[in-house]
Input
Amino acid sequence: MISVRLAAVTALALAPALVSAQDYKFQLTARQGQMAIAGIGASVLGDMAKGKIAYDAAAAEAAAHNIAAIASLNQDGLWPEGSDDMSIDGTRAQPTIWENNADFMSKWESFQTAALSLSDAAGSGVEAMQPALNTLGQACVACHKAHRAPEN
Amino acid sequence: MQRLFIVSAIVAGLFGAGWVLSAGRPLPAAAVAGLSGDPAAGEAVFHAAGCASCHMAPEAEGPARRVLSGGQRFPSPFGTFVAPNISPDPDQGIGGWDLRAFASALKRGVRPDGAHYFPAFPYTTYTRMTLQDVADLKAFMDLLPPDATPSQPHEVAFPFNIRRSLFGWKLLFLDADWVLDAGTNPSLQRGRYLVEAMGHCAECHTSRNILGGIDKARWMAGAPNPAGKGRIPNITPGALDWSEADIAYYLETGFTPDFDSVGGHMAFVVENTALLAPEDRAAIAAYLKALPPLK
Output
């Protein structure tokens, strides 16, 4: 009897550890995928800024619009509680996102503001675009610094 | 009995001599005589040397990054160091220091009372700075806002907490020689100065031996992260295949060439390098590309 209870208690105690990345497969794919889209846009604009590829107003605007679209996505549902890197594998999202959610959301808002002004500037030449692109970079860095774990 | 007394007297004498010899020596007064600092030039030194990254309050942002009240914690295998207040507050900060005291701290790792600093304060890098840059830096820092937050003690256990023991450590690991032979190329020399005398890139990107000294044979070839998770990457051409333009752009914007943005402690570094002149970022990139490639 005691051993059954013990087993039950042990099972309960272990239960949280049994949550696996599988349970959050879609959320992880979605939130990491949106980052990848933003990253691809930023890389196109970066290559233009560096002179690696020629500046092209239409392509620059398209890339900036994609980033702005990502930054405008409502984040509800993509960051379920318990999907942090201390609880599951397959993510670099730190518990600070939930512990200090107001900070995370305000960093997301700065990202959105930066992405929208980049959208306005991207079609007007490399010089016009550069400051907005730098501000966007700062918005990505600020959030990764605070809320993303280093790569292993 | 008498023998024992003589032996102990000799031991005590040697110990005492060692104790005196192992005190830190500040720079001679003549070294800084006649130097005067230019605060405008000092601002660039301040950013290149990254003083705020360690000495601002934990998680300070925006203008608060210029208030050097200390309090950030740096875990290491020897214990946790806490950055002190180096704002110009005369009581809690370093407002009362003259140029000689300031330069002795940066270039020799010596406190005004002769005690040795722990190398968590990267004076092994700053020892290569020119005295003119040190004077400019001080002139700039004197104008930053004073703050009266008291410095916190380090959490370092015996025997590592004995500052005297750092005398031997400094004999082994404090030297002002350049690591990379930069030849006569001015951009490479500038890059070397920015990296080896100011940016303290090697403090993170190079592994250490068991005494905590930097392993120069593995210069910039990556290291475990002292804060725990992950590794600090190898940035020699043996691992980093980015172009010079990619590196310079990363140091300006934080964007990597592979769709990502910088994170972790490097984000603090990029906040500083973003404020450098474009030629300086290009010089750092040229320096990294000129390093011996290590795997």
User: Anything to note?
Assistant: The longest helix of chain A spans residues 25-50. The mean pLDDT of chain A is 89. Chain A is about 70% helix and 0% strand.
